[in-house]
């Protein structure tokens, strides 16, 4: 059985290397990986609240509020009223949609370059393994609550 410390270290190092590269790609657009994650969730859900984003990303609501503030200053988000007047639904503005498209293309190209040395079977196996690990982490988190 592999040393668990090596698995952990490898996963964390890979995540750090990826986020560093993503930050480099996003920098010309005044974004970083944590801001990108918010845009991604809003696009994925076709609009959502800050609470939805915090839950999806598993981060604190105050940290999401800070990110939303920055994105609002960049004029890439719009707020829409919801039935619950205490909550605002966030959507991408026209500028935000254009920015999302541009950055998505760059990140997709990066991802293709990253996985290009892997054959199709290895890509599928790797993705399957990562999903199993994430699902198991979610289960472990749920059982601790």
UniProtKB/TrEMBL annotation:
One of its GO terms (molecular function) is DNA-binding transcription factor activity. It comes from the Bacteria. InterPro entries: HTH_MarR-typ, WH-like_DNA-bd_sf, WH_DNA-bd_sf. Keywords: DNA-binding, Transcription, Transcription regulation. SUPFAM superfamilies: Winged helix' DNA-binding domain (SSF46785). Residues 4-139 form the HTH marR-type domain. This is Transcriptional regulator SlyA.
């Amino acid at each position: 059985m592999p040393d668990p410390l090596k698995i952990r270290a490898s996963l964390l190092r890979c995540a750090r290397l990826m986020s560093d590269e993503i930050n480099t790609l996003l920098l010309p657009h005044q974004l970083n990986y944590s801001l990108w994650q918010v845009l991604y969730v809003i696009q994925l859900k076709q609009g959502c609240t800050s609470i939805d984003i915090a839950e999806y990303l598993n981060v604190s609501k105050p940290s999401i509020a800070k990110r939303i503030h920055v994105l609002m200053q960049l004029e890439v988000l719009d707020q829409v009223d919801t039935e619950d007047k205490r909550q605002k639904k966030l959507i991408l503005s026209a500028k935000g949609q254009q920015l999302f498209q541009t950055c998505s293309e760059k990140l997709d190209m990066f991802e293709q370059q990253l996985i290009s040395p892997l054959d199709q079977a290895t890509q599928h196996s790797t993705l399957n393994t990562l999903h199993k690990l994430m699902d198991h982490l979610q289960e472990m988190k749920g059982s601790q609550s």
